[in-house]
Structures are given as structure tokens and as C-alpha cells.
Fold this protein.
Amino acid sequence: MEDIANKTFKVVIVGSGPAGLTAALYAARADLKPLVLEGPEPGGQLTTTTDVENFPGYPEGVMGPKMMDDFRQQATRFGADARYGTVTNIEFGERPFKISIDEETDIFAESIIVSTGASAKWLGIPSEQRLRGRGVTACATCDGAFFRNEHVVVIGGGDTAMEEATFLTRYASKVTIIHRRDEFRASKTMQKRAMNNPKIKVMWDSVIDEVLGEQVVKGVNVRNVKTNEITTMEDVTGVFLAIGHKPNTDLFKGVLDMDETGYILTEGKSTKTNVEGIFACGDAQDSVYRQAVTAAGTGCMAAMDAERWLENQEEAAEAEA
Ligand code: NDP
């Protein structure tokens, strides 16, 4: 990083999932020579999945990490500079913004594109982490089709759990929702839709104690929190976490306007935030769609918004001179 210390970039992109790398591609092609700071999970959430079958342009599907390598290569081919490094601080007070990388290197940015994404919440039990991507997943849209005629479980009691359970019945022969309380927090409509589906059953007051299997999921141990009784479900091959997502936006708290869960708010049909020169795209500002293709779309928008904003700044500076 020393070679870029104290350098000023026109565009610095924070985060390297589909949103960030698409923003990088567009900004690079606009000759803005963007710097991408890849963050703690280079390539983003897709690097934790296996096959991606719903990204247009890959008729045979593609492995998540491979797809993100393709994104990176395409952006760097046009001059984006993608670096492993995590932004640890930003001084928002004046432009260009001062950005600290890994608490070591300071650089400056005339504009910033925030594409820090979101992270699915996990239970945090060791067996879940061991089998992540091998039957334990947090994305029914991505992985549901791999569980044709299988019995899968969905953990959670919110709208996501209802939506994912309902979606999974297209493939799975049986879907069991495991919820830690005796009532759902999901909206009545979504609950009704799930409960009316004959393939969906619910285990109330229940939590997963352990996911079974070494290489792939081969069952779950479910504990009733009221009786402490453990039920082993040996036919379960898929565990879908739907206990919420957390946008990775802590760095921007108190500066960028956010909703109550931390998703960055953008202005109208744009990626503009409430701070001039800062744009947000991808899952950091999208709690609804959260797909690679929608993230990529908003990444493109952010680069175009930043480009126009920089142009206007230059024009204004020229007019003043
Ligand atoms: P929510 O926070 O609404 O729900 C999370 C669920 O997971 C809750 O039922 C919660 O239990 C449970 N949970 C949380 N942590 C744990 C844990 N450690 N162990 C077991 N269970 C846990 O998240 P969602 O992703 O469902 O929804 C997020 C937002 O997105 C909501 O505003 C929702 O309305 C919206 N949304 C809307 C959709 C739509 O309208 N089509 C579709 C999907 C989401 P408990 O209830 O006990 O707290």
C-alpha cells in the first residue's frame, strides 16, 4: 500500500462484491482510475457460496468465487486498481475525504462509492460453520434448487423465513420451519401463505443444537427450549438460515442517513447519499432484493452518479476560476 500513501483518487470504492466491482468497471471505463479497497471478504458474500445459477450470462452456472474473479479481472483490465485492504476510518469533514486503510496507510478520495454489502446472520455454532456451503446456507434463492425432493429446514420466524420456506417448496419435498418462539414475527399475509402450504411444517419453541454430518449435512439435532427435549431429524439435507442480515455500514454510522437497521438511504432513483460525493450501492443500501444482479446494477448506477457529480464539480471549479 505504501505506493499509494497520501495519493488522491477521483473515486475510491469501498467493498468488492458485485456492486463494488461493477462500479469499478464502469468508473475505470470512464477513465476515473478507481481504487477498490476489497475489505475483509474480498469478492463479498458470493465467495461463500458454491454454484451461482441465477446470474445472467452464465448458462451453465458458475462457482461464486470464480464469478467474482471474473468481475475483478474485467474491472482491472480497464485500469481499476483493486487492493486487499480494509478501510478503518474516514474523515468526512472535508473533501477530498481522508481514508485510512488497515490503520496504516492514508489516502484521499474526491468521491466514495460505498459497496460494503451485508452479512447474513449465523447461529454461531461450530457445526454450522463447518458445513457452511455444504448444505448450510443463508440464501434460498441461490441454493434452493440443489435440494430437489429433499427435506430441508428453515431457521427463523420473520418474513424472510416465510418467504424462503414457501420458495423452497418448489424443490424440496418437505420444509420444516424451526422457530425459537411460539409465534412468528412475520406479517400475517406471509405467515398465512406459508402455513397454507401442505409441504411446510413448523417446530415451535425450537432451536438447532447441532448440524450433523462431516462433509455434507446429514441431519439436525433440534432442542425444544421449553422441555429441553432433543429431536434428531436424520433425513434433513439442507439448513437455511433466515435470521436476518446485517448491513456492513458501521463505519458510516452518524454520518450517512440510514434506516433503523443500518441500511444506507439513497436519494430517489439514484445512489446519492445525504453526503455530497458519497454514493451507496449493493446490499449496503438494499434490504429488499439483495441479489448479485441487482447489486451489480446499482454498482453501475453509483459509478455513473459519481462520474456526473465529479464532472459537475470540475465545471463549477472552472467557472469559479
Ligand atoms: P427479522 O429480523 O424480521 O426476523 C429474524 C427472525 O429470526 C426472527 O423471527 C427471530 O426470532 C429469528 N432469529 C434471530 N436471531 C436468531 C437466532 N440467533 N436463533 C434463532 N432465531 C433467530 O429478519 P427478516 O430477514 O425476516 O426480515 C428483515 C426485514 O425485511 C423485515 O423488515 C421484513 O419485514 C423484511 N422482509 C420483507 C419481505 C417481504 O415483504 N416480501 C421479505 C423478507 C423480508 P424472534 O422472532 O424470536 O426475534
User: Anything to note?
Assistant: The pocket of NDP is lined by residues 123, 155-161, 163, 180-181, 185, 207, 242-244, 287 (CB under 6 Å).
